[in-house]
UniProtKB/TrEMBL annotation:
InterPro entries: PAPS_reduct_dom, Rossmann-like_a/b/a_fold, Sulfate_adenylyltrnsfr_sub2
Natural source organism: Hymenobacter mellowenesis
Start and end residues of each Phosphoadenosine phosphosulphate reductase domain: 7-125
Family annotation (SUPFAM superfamilies): Adenine nucleotide alpha hydrolases-like (SSF52402)
Protein name: Phosphoadenosine phosphosulfate reductase family protein
PANTHER family assigned: PHOSPHOADENOSINE PHOSPHOSULFATE REDUCTASE, SULFATE ADENYLYLTRANSFERASE SUBUNIT 2
Length: 367
């Protein structure tokens, strides 16, 4: 096992991980970052275009990880056979485990690793935290860049004396009394852990980062071995609009599947797009996204439909049923009704319409 900390960033093919690579290269070029992409073999062409553009921007190759080596089939098809034709679903996500998480953990091995994850400041989800003690997740787009397990350790009752001591040592005299009152306040029903975390962050994000970094010294986390950490002065909170701005201004560009395409139904015009990266047949996508796939990538839809056999389907209705003309008409009408309620004219992408779907799914696939 190496004692040198590796810094790794997984590129999913989605907007957030690509924007994070751009952001960190610009803000922290001193980080020697390894970039990787878990290639299922079932991505849309737009995904590979994004990865190529990102490689050109970074001036660095992105390592492609295959879940299976030595097989005549791509990784997904290999595991479909292993599972006897049983397709993954929201309740049986073997695709995430076998095609994303296990290849990543083999890639990093036993080295101490800091893994950078592109979950934004306007998202209420945690993302993937490895159970392996040599992997630590950091979330640079959030005001709180630390993972939930680290926060629990820092704010647990046993850590109060050390927490208070570090705030006494590191804070400025003018703010010390207020910060110490927050630091020594115990978590309770009237002052929950999220409330205490937010109070400490609101008081001084950079100071909180310094305190957490010092508290990690007594742990087995990879950053316990580091003499310093470049992101301790980060106090930004990036939201979705910032992500699209980073992609555009860098020249990497927004993945083409986020762009609006028009459709017509009953003399009305609507718009559709894709809300996520990942496999073209992802079971988390909305019905209107399946229609988008059918009309924008008919060859991919046909391949997705070919998997539906032996009674297995991607969702509660089969793709054969979904593409019947009357069913497509109803799906488009439903999507049009939703768009009229939520979409703002100023948005060049279907951001507002897709907002409630964006957080659904596996962070390792979509960010």
């Amino acid at each position: 096992m190496s004692t040198t900390i590796r810094h790794v960033l997984g590129i999913s093919g989605g907007k957030d991980s690509a924007a994070l690579a751009i952001y960190l290269r610009h803000r922290h070029p001193e980080l020697e970052m390894d970039y990787y992409f878990c290639d299922t073999g079932k991505e849309l062409p737009e995904t590979y275009t994004l990865i190529s553009n990102l490689e050109n921007y970074l001036g660095q190759k992105i390592t492609h990880l295959d879940a299976v080596t030595g097989s005549p089939e791509d990784s997904f098809d290999h595991f479909v056979q292993v599972y006897g034709g049983y397709l993954p679903s929201s309740s049986a996500r073997w695709c995430t485990k076998k095609l994303k998480l296990e290849p990543f953990e083999r890639y990093v091995g036993t080295d101490p690793v800091v893994s950078y994850v592109g979950i934004r400041g306007d998202e209420d989800r945690e993302g993937y935290i490895s159970r392996k003690p040599n992997i630590q997740s950091i979330f640079p787009f959030r005001r709180n860049m630390w993972s939930e397990d680290v926060v629990q350790r820092v704010l647990q009752p046993d850590a109060l004396p050390r927490l208070r001591g570090l705030y006494a040592e590191l804070s400025e005299p003018a703010a010390r009394a207020r910060l110490l009152a927050l630091a020594e306040a115990p978590v309770s029903r009237s002052f929950t852990r999220p409330q205490k975390l937010n109070a400490l962050l609101a008081a001084d994000v950079k100071l909180f980062n310094q305190v957490v970094f010092q508290l990690l010294r007594d742990t087995a986390y990879p950053l316990a071995q580091a003499p310093d950490f470049a992101l301790l002065d980060n106090d930004e909170n990036l939201i979705r609009e910032d992500i699209f701005r980073l992609l555009r201004e860098s020249g990497v560009g927004v993945p083409a599947y986020y762009e609006k395409r028009t459709f017509e139904v009953d003399g009305q015009t609507g718009e559709y797009a894709r809300s996520r990266s990942g496999c073209y047949f992802c079971f988390f996508q909305q019905k209107i996204e399946w229609v988008w796939l059918y009309e924008q990538h008919p060859e991919k839809f046909a391949q997705a439909m070919a998997y539906e056999k032996d009674g297995y389907t991607w969702m509660e209705e089969s793709l054969t049923e979904l593409i019947k003309p009357e069913r497509i008409r109803q799906i488009k009408l439903d999507a049009l009704k939703k768009q009229r309620k939520t979409t703002t004219a100023a948005s060049p992408f279907l951001l507002d319409t897709l907002d409630d779907e964006e957080g659904i799914g596996c962070a390792s696939c979509f960010i």
